[in-house]
Amino acid sequence: MLGSDSRPRFLPGRRRGLIALVSALCAAALAATLLATNASAGTEKRPAAKSTVAGKTVGYFTNWGVYQRNYHVKNIETSGSADKLTHINYAFGNVQGGKCTVGDSYADYEKAYSADQSVDGKADTWDQPLRGNFNQLLKLKEKHPNLKVLWSFGGWTWSGGFGEAAKNPEAFAESCYNLLNDSRWKGLFDGIDIDWEYPNACGLSCDTSGRDAFAKVLKALRGKFGDKLVTAAITADASKDGKMDATDYKAAAQYVDWYLPMTYDYFGAWDAKGPTAPHSPLTTYDGIPKELFNTKASIAKLMLMGVPMNKMLLGMGFYGRGWSGVSKAEPGGTASGPAPGKYEQGIEDYKVLKERCPATGKVAGTAYAHCGDQWWSYDTPETVGTKSDWAAEQGLGGTFFWELSGDTPDGELIKSIR
């Protein structure tokens, strides 16, 4: 999910708000010191990445989306999303045996596309050396020469392999470099994205590789990939002794072009009885179930740790999370369990929710909806615009979102990113 460039300024009113939150996270003197450090971060020498332009818009494309979701690379073009994107993160590659490996060979480079399914209107042939998403992405890049594609590895399901990779970071980096530069898809990938959930902490499984493992892995990747893009999706858990405290994100930041703090999924129906709460609040609000579980707090804590503002992107979800058995229209209601979703309980695409359960209110910079006994939270074009404005005003490197197939066929959400 951003770059080593710098924005021309912070807008004073917004800056004061973020500084106030940093002060709440730590002593005022430390916050002032941090801000001084951050202000000069653009001039200090980093062995990290090349300078990249501000205002990045990064969207995730999932390889499994070509199945039930019937979302293909061509949809990125026909929706108008390709005109808005600066980068696509292709999710996911796997991490096995300490190496980067292919996640789904059929979807990635074997699936044949007919003329009407293809980006350029030309059908795949049985004997061509490359098909699937990779070939379609190459065609998309031909239409949009400035569009960059990164291969993202890990994710919630496949992060368990990073612990083994951290035992020999150089060998891991070598395997990733070789895979991304395979001659079959030469010229497709402009860099690598690491989605380790979570270093030295717990996600689907628990990692005990140590506080410095993440930085060592990224250092090895930077050393191998040179001036290619190296990015990382990271936790947004700003709570005391939470996931953010388990890893040295400041040390690792020098090796990445940008971080993608996953500033969504703060709340959801894994707490089956509620209380209902928006899954991606921009700010706190009266009655929020957990202190510091909001985007503003996450960004402030990373800044306090010493991560430059221009190396962070603001994350948004193109989906909603919801509960059923809810009678209260506003946040904070009790529930009986997760609301129904097409692919998974408690989660649904924006394109579905906007029709099935339209927004009825806003809180903390995002929207919520109460319909029947269901309660959902999700971003709308209005709140997406507000969030992207906030990111620019704070001097962040841009925005990113999970993921492209959740948007409407005409790209309603991505076109609201300013």
UniProtKB/TrEMBL annotation:
* InterPro entries per record: Chitinase_II/V-like_cat, Chitinase_insertion_sf, EF_Hand_1_Ca_BS, GH, Glyco_hydro18_cat, Glyco_hydro_18_chit_AS, Glycosyl_Hydrlase_18
Q: Which reaction does it catalyse?
A: Random endo-hydrolysis of N-acetyl-beta-D-glucosaminide (1->4)-beta-linkages in chitin and chitodextrins
Q: Which UniProt keywords apply?
A: Carbohydrate metabolism, Chitin degradation, Glycosidase, Hydrolase, Polysaccharide degradation, Signal
Keyword Transferase attributed? no
Q: What EC identifiers does the entry list?
A: 3.2.1.14
Q: Please, which domain of life does this record's source organism belong to?
A: Bacteria
Write down the PANTHER family for this protein, in alphabetical order.
CHITINASE, CHITINASE 12-RELATED
Family note = Belongs to the glycosyl hydrolase 18 family.
Report the protein name in the record: chitinase
- What species is this protein from? Streptomyces oryzae
